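It is worth pausing here to work through a concrete case rather than discussing structure prediction in the abstract. The textbook approach is simple: state the sequence, then state the predicted structure, then interpret. We follow exactly that order.
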Amino acid sequence: MSQHIAETAVIGKSSSLGFNCIIMDDVKIGNNCLIGHNVVIHAGSTIGNNVRIDDNTIIGKKPLSSPRSIFKVDPNLKPAVIGDQCQIGANVVIYVQCEIGKNCLIADLATIRENVTIGDLNIIGRNVSIENFVKIGARCKLETNCYITAYSEIEDYCFVAPSVATSNDNYMARDKERYKHFKGITMKKGSRIGVNATIMPGKTINEDGMVAAGSLITKDVTAEDIWQGTPAKLKTKVPEAQLLKNNMDKI
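Step two, the predicted structure:
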């Protein structure tokens, strides 16, 4: 079997590695892990117990930096951490200084940038992109092809439908004034965004607020209300039966 396993790497009991795996210095892999073919785990990364990582996935990748980049790469980024019982699909890239909680599912082709924290029991769908400096709570669901811009915060029990787009730069990469105003979106506990909606920089979707499919959010979404349209406006209240407090036993 063709592999590179650094002498300082630690691999737990009953864990298995596929063909062509590269396990770098000081990596720690817990017990009962299943590592697929062609997986690369960069130096210092920690993988919990009972973790599955599918083929061609990279854990702990260092970011690139263009001479034109606004923010430069911190040379002291910490290794990636993957919690117990996580399932990570094929061709996933998880960057350095990314911390994933327990029992998360990260589907094929997802990308999670550096300086991202993700809590427990989340579902990160196929081809989801999560940019740097993002914080995600617990029990959220981010579905296929959604894009979470840098400097965003998503609290617990949030839902993001497929192809949702978010932004953090009202200046669209021109005018140095933009350096002072970078701000992603904020989703408060239990808030939801429908398919193909667009959320503009700095906007907050308040607790149990709901964005209808295809809407453009240019103002903060009020708690327990449904906003709809382009640009979106207050449409109606979230039905009582749909409120988070009435569904805790189901999600």
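Step three, interpretation. DSSP finds no helices and 33 strands in the chain. The domain at 146-171+178-251 is CATH 2.160.10.10 (UDP N-Acetylglucosamine Acyltransferase; domain 1).
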